[in-house]
């Protein structure tokens, strides 16, 4: 019994799609801002990203209610202190 080329192609494509869906359903994701823990209990979130050049990026991250600016991708990663003196809810820190 010979398996035809279109049937083999359909099986391979189905396996590729399945291999991509299983990790997502188990809670693993490649996207930023996604987490296994949803809602207000999350302690860390990626708010924005900005590409500066081919290697370096600025990340605005909220961690425990504080906004932090991170510079990544260069010879060393830098934490730039909060862009303002207030926390995410407006309180002075």
Radius of gyration: 21 Å
Helix segment tally: 1
Mean pLDDT: 78
**Strand portion:** 25-35%
Order of helices and strands: HEEEE
The count of β-strands is: 4
Strand order of the largest sheet: 1-2-3-4
The largest sheet, given as strand count, sense and whether it forms a barrel, is: 4 strands, antiparallel
Shape: elongated
Number of domains: 2
**What kind of assembly state do the chains in view correspond to?**
single chain
What structural class results from the helix and strand content?
alpha+beta
Subcellular location: Bacterial flagellum basal body; Cell membrane
InterPro entries: Flagellar_biosynth_FliO, FliO/MopB
Main location: other
Keywords: Bacterial flagellum, Cell membrane, Cell projection, Cilium, Flagellum, Membrane, Transmembrane, Transmembrane helix
Task: Give an overview in words.
The protein has 93 residues and is α+β, with helices and mostly antiparallel strands. The protein has one helix and four strands; from the N terminus they run αββββ. The protein has one helix at 5-25, and strands at 44-51, 57-63, 66-72, 78-80. It has a four-stranded antiparallel beta sheet with strand order 1-2-3-4, with no helix packed on it. The termini are far apart.
